Amino acid sequence: MIYRRNKLIFILKPFSIILLLISIFTIVWMRSSFVSLEYSISTLEKKKAALMRDKKVFVAERASLLSAERFEKFVSNSTVSGGFVFPDRVKVVYVKRAKENEPYRASFKEK
Question: What parts of the sequence cross the membrane (predicted)?
Fold first, then answer.
């Protein structure tokens, strides 16, 4: 009986030590993976913030480029009448808004 018990302890002791080492290395590996994931998330958040700032700048620039005052200023400098004029009905082109991924369609027909 004692011989059997010593044999069991002789087998279980190295097995438990190996299992303990594997579990410690697994915990360390998981922690390092978590930290690297946090770093990559923070870098992506910084990129997102920079892109959001750029988007705000571009939206403001687009609004200033498409403002009616800018068109009026350009037209008043380039025409004799000093403002917008109604177009000739023959020269009007109607552009229908398509779905998201389709090109715009233009025609000379009324809506």
Answer: 12-30
More reliable by pLDDT, 61 or 86: 61
Q: What is the pTM of this model?
A: 0.50
Side chain identity, residue 92: V
Evaluate whether residue 91 is within a structural domain.
no
Asked if residues 82 and 90 have their Cβ atoms less than 8 Å apart, the reply is no
Q: Of 89, 71, 88, 68, whose CA–CA distance to 79 is shortest? A: 71
Determine the Cα–Cα distance for residues 16 and 36; give it in Å rounded to an integer: 30
Residue 107 and residue 105: Cα distance in Å, rounded? Answer: 7
The rounded distance, in Å, linking the Cα atoms of 89 and 97 is 20
Question: Could you tell me the two tokens for 18?
Answer: 């190996």
Cβ-based neighbour number of residue 44 at 10 Å: 10
Residue 111 lies in a domain: no
What distance in Å separates the CA atoms of residue 65 and residue 59, rounded to the nearest whole number? Answer: 10
Asked, for residue 95, whether it belongs to a domain, the answer is no
